[in-house]
Design goal:
Number of helices: 12
Helix content: 25-40%
Strand content: 15-25%
Number of strands: 18
Structural class: alpha+beta
Distance between the termini: 25 Å
Length: about 425
């Protein structure tokens, strides 16, 4: 899918200014997002992310899936192999690697471990010593399992004869210019209770041990951008995991990816939390688009931001009337009244106005367009009727002022590039 550069520029302008202003008054700190199309990065940005790294939480499972598909392409394994072939302590029959990868094994989410309460993650020895009931099929339906991916990591180590992280970096990521870490020091110092929830003021100290392949990967912003470029490049991905592997990777049954519900498009992905950190990743394989967002906020807040980025990006690439040279550039900026802020960005046929605290610039914002008389009119819906308000931009003491109904907004800053 080819996207005109002018659309990418507009999307980046809207998203970067929205998130920059939102971060100033919001409750979250550092975050980073990256999107790519056909192997080329098109959107990157965030807030307070330089020299930071981020936990991928359950998005870590993406690496384990890629490793499995690579090993199958190289005929070192088959996804139909029984798990007991690699892990003899698993006595259950007809439990395959594919069952674990697709969360169809029916085993408990976290086994018999309480690491979400105490921050202490089990070792491989701990898993090997589990009672066989821990691997019992509890349901024939989908049951998400972090333990299942810990087992997959152990199976991969059995094939490689080296630690999971060493193999991941040397065999897979090094050629891509990416290096990930676990950074765990075996310490839960820094964990504390807040409103009955375990948090972490330094969750990088938490060693995820055997659950690293499931939820323990730490990555830099640069590494994440390169990963997204790689996944969106079908030729490179195909060379790496093969035709069959690509079809498997972008099959929603794999890892039981969640579908983005706010679009008719086939967009799906995975998200996760880890003691106050969270991550989202999405794929649009039909159009060769992939993206990710990482942050130190909780998943509910991150999901709202992810949704806003997706809505903005697809609104622009799908609607010809939004992008193109704008005749309204003189009105752009950050505006402030006594009670509210507004971000105003020029479109091809009008202006986009939205509150920096909006969850989505387009869904929660408003568009002003010129009428037949050449007047800028803001049209929006209230609970009872369709409303129309004229937009008046005037100069007062060398400042640009927007008059909207009874409200008066003064431009206080320019947009960032």
């Amino acid at each position: 899918m080819a996207i005109k550069s002018e659309k990418i520029i507009l999307a980046k302008k809207i998203i970067n200014n929205w998130l920059s202003e939102k971060a100033k008054t919001g409750s979250f700190g550092s975050f980073y997002f990256s999107a790519a199309i056909n192997g080329k990065s098109i959107l990157t940005g965030g807030h307070d992310y330089l020299n930071n790294s981020f936990r991928l939480a359950s998005v870590s499972k993406i690496f384990t899936i890629i490793l499995l598909l690579k090993l199958e392409k190289e005929k070192n394994i088959s996804l139909g192999d029984e798990v007991s072939k690699y892990l003899p302590f698993i006595k259950r029959k007809n439990l395959t690697l594919r069952d674990l990868m697709n969360h169809d094994s029916g085993i408990a989410r976290d086994g018999q471990f309480a690491f979400w309460d105490d921050g202490i993650f089990p070792t491989k020895e701990d898993i090997g010593n589990l009672d066989k009931s821990a691997f019992k099929k509890l349901t024939s339906k989908f049951k998400y399992s972090n333990l299942g991916y810990a087992l997959l990591g152990m199976a991969i180590e059995d094939v490689w004869k080296k630690p999971y992280l060493d193999g991941l970096n040397s065999e897979v990521l090094s050629p891509l210019g990416i290096k990930v870490s676990a950074n765990g020091k075996g310490s839960v110092k820094g964990l504390f209770k807040k409103d009955g929830v375990i948090m972490a003021d330094d969750n990088f100290n938490v060693d995820t041990n055997a659950f690293l392949p499931s939820l323990g990967i730490i990555i830099s912003p640069e590494g994440l951008a390169r990963l997204i470029e790689f996944i969106s490049n079908s030729a490179k991905l195909k060379k790496f995991i093969g035709d069959r592997g690509v079809k498997e990777f972008f099959n929603k049954e794999t890892n039981k990816f969640e579908t983005w519900k706010n679009s008719k498009r086939n967009i799906f992905g995975r998200g996760g939390d880890f003691f106050g950190s969270s991550a989202d990743i999405f794929f649009d394989p039909k159009n060769g688009i992939s993206g990710a967002l990482v942050s130190n906020v909780r998943r509910a807040e991150l999901s709202a931001i992810s949704d806003g980025i997706l809505r903005t990006f697809y609104a622009i690439i799908d609607d010809r009337t939004f992008s193109g040279k704008t005749p309204f550039g003189n009105y752009e900026g950050i505006y402030r009244s006594g009670s509210f802020d507004l971000i105003i960005i020029g479109l091809k046929k009008g202006l986009l106005l939205f509150d920096p605290q909006a969850n989505s610039p387009f869904r929660d914002g408003m568009i002003g367009e010129k009428n037949d008389k050449g007047e800028l009119i803001l049209q929006f819906s209230s609970s009872s009727a369709e409303m129309k308000e004229p937009l008046f931009f005037v100069k007062e003491n060398d400042k640009t002022v927007l008059k909207l109904g009874s409200m008066r907004y003064i431009r206080v800053a320019k947009l960032i590039d």
